Amino acid sequence: MTSLEKPTEDAQQDSRAVTEAALFEAFGGVRGMVETVVPGLFFVTIFTLNKDLHLSALAALAVSLVLVVVRLAMKDTVKHAFSGVFGVAFGVVFAMMTGNAKDFYLPGMLYTLGLALAYIITTLAGVPLIGLILGPVFKENLSWRTRNPGRKKAYAKASWAWGLILLAKCAILFPLYWWADTTQLGWVLIALKIPPFLLAVWLTWVFLAKAPAPIDVFAEMEAEEAAAKERESAGRHRRES
């Protein structure tokens, strides 16, 4: 290894570390994954044991609220826990309205389908959704669209991965919604919660780790402001002298 190669490798390692940290921040990490699984796990477990829709639904809603309270008590971000509460609440409302326990899962399934289409459509439109999600996290905002083509290509690949993985998940779940009973659908859905998500996150990491580093537009703005202040100060000194 030459002295010229080492800084490049160090920069690549730093970029990969930053990418990994950003993905964990954006998608909630291990705790966020647990919070998406636990309410549904409570629902399907209780329903499997006693077939009581109301008890199962209320238990799922209660545990999702407890997760929010725990986040608040720890003064941690609650966006992932709150999204879980809203998802469970919609499921509870659907199931209570129809009296069909399988409808507890329907809002989440429709959301997954809509998200899959959003990833694909935005990528075809030239503004891949994963770039819109991660751009602010990497402090690059939308600079990747016009100033960083290699990064835009990586975001497009990642968005295709998310879209196709979620579509594959929907291709499994929607037939089960019609043909399987509530417990079968519930346990399959629980089984499909984390593995497809981890696959999509891993592929995103692979694509972005190989992409050019993000352009820190916030640092650029701060540098421009500092330069403007220096010019203003220099102009003032010249006038005074």
From TrEMBL:
Transmembrane segments: 53-74, 81-98, 110-138, 159-179, 185-208
One Pfam family in the UniProt entry: DUF3159
Domain of life: Bacteria
Keywords: Membrane, Transmembrane, Transmembrane helix
Keyword Lipid biosynthesis tagged: no
Keyword Transmembrane among record annotations: yes
The name this protein goes by in its record: DUF3159 domain-containing protein
